[in-house]
Every structure is written in structure tokens, then in C-alpha cells.
Amino acid sequence: MKHVIHQLNKAFDHRVRLGVMAVLMANDEVSFNELKETLDLTDGNLASHAAALEKAGYVQVNKQFVGKKPNTTFTATKEGRQAFQEHLDTLEKLLKGAE
Fold first, then answer.
1. Confidence (pTM)
2. End-to-end alpha-carbon separation of the chain, Å?
3. CB–CB of 71/20 below 8 Å?
4. What is the Cα–Cα distance from 76 to 54, expressed in whole angstroms?
5. Most buried of the four, 19, 42, 59, 79, by CB within 10 Å?
6. Are the C-beta atoms of residues 74 and 59 closer than 8 Å to each other?
């Protein structure tokens, strides 16, 4: 059996992606601006990390216009929720093993 640390999901290695998923796990849908403010990120930083999570199939990005203003929202996919929960479970195993 491989060591538990190798079971961590590399998609969540970066603190921004970890933060994005944590916020999305607690909310059904979050707007770009809400997520940016909550995590204290720049537009570009959030966009690039959200794109990485979207490419992995963990986040769905919904773009629409409200009037003439663009409105982007994010939701965690079923696969994303499952992968993140498994990541958290693995972190918990590591913590318990360190006791």
C-alpha cells in the first residue's frame, strides 16, 4: 500500500485552488467577485486557478450577461465535490497518523 501522502490530489496542491474548492463546498454557487474578495485574489489569479479546476472537471464556470455586464459564477461539480472530500479525508488520515 502506498504511503497516504501520495493519495493527496495534486489539483488541490495550491492554496488558491484549495480555497476555491473550500468556498464552493460551502456554497451552491459563488460569483467571480465574491470568490475574488473572499480569497483576496486578483482577477487573473482567480481566472487561471479556476480554469485549472475546470479543466480537471472539478468546477463548472457559468458565464452570462446581466444587462450589458458580464456575470461569471462557479459551482463545484459532483466529481469535484467527491475529489475534494477524498482530499480532505486523506489530510485527516495524515493528521491522525501524526498524533
1. 0.89
2. 21
3. no
4. 9
5. 59
6. yes
Q: For residue 30, what is its C-alpha cell?
A: 459563488
- Look up residue 4 and give its three cell numbers: 497516504
76: β partners: 59
The CA-atom distances, in angstroms, between 37 and each of 33, 40, 50, 82 are 6, 5, 14, 25
The type of residue at 37 is E
Radius of gyration of the chain (CA): 15
d(CA 74, CA 93): 29
Distances (CA, A) of 25 to 4, 66, 77: 23, 25, 10
Residue by residue, DSSP assigns 49-95 as: HHHHHHHTTSEEEEEEEETTEEEEEEEE-HHHHHHHHHHHHHHHHHH
